[in-house]
Design a protein that fits this description.
The chain is an alpha+beta fold. Helices cover 24% and strands 38% of the residues. The chain is built from 3 helices and 8 strands; from the N terminus they run E-E-H-E-E-H-H-E-E-E-E.
Length: 132
């Protein structure tokens, strides 16, 4: 198993950052041609997803719909820190993705990228990558 980590800095409360190139750079340095790559986000108010990379309006739509369904100010939240919405969004999006490695490359669809999802920014976050 190969273990690598990198940091992501976010500038907004909610933000999606394409991290595919960073993951591929790690993979390319390993010499691994076939296998599995796991991407894990060790934070309770952030996540990782795979989605379209061609149209920036997709990120806006995802964040807008999450904000509509899980608003920041909601009278039902009990969590005292005021970031309950970020915790719920992280749970819905998820904190890990499993990717296929084929021919030394991440096996993604034509329009797919791996996105780090910030829900409680701006912050400096960690991304853990494991390659088997």
């Amino acid at each position: 198993m190969i273990k690598e980590n990198f940091n992501v800095s976010t500038s907004n409360r909610s933000q999606m950052i394409d991290i595919s190139d960073k993951i591929q750079k790690i993979l390319s340095g390993t010499g691994v041609k076939e296998g599995i790559c796991t991407v894990f986000i060790p934070h309770t108010t952030a996540g990782v997803t795979i989605n379209e990379n061609a149209d920036p309006s997709v990120e806006k739509d995802i964040n807008r719909m999450l904000d509509i369904k899980i608003p920041w100010s909601h009278s039902s939240y009990s969590h005292a820190e005021g970031n309950s919405a970020a915790h719920v969004k992280s749970s819905l999006i998820g904190c890990s993705q499993t990717l296929i490695i084929e021919g030394g490359r991440l096996k993604l669809g034509t329009w797919q990228s791996v996105f780090f999802c910030e829900f409680d920014g701006p912050r400096r976050r960690k991304v853990w990558v494991r390659i088997n």
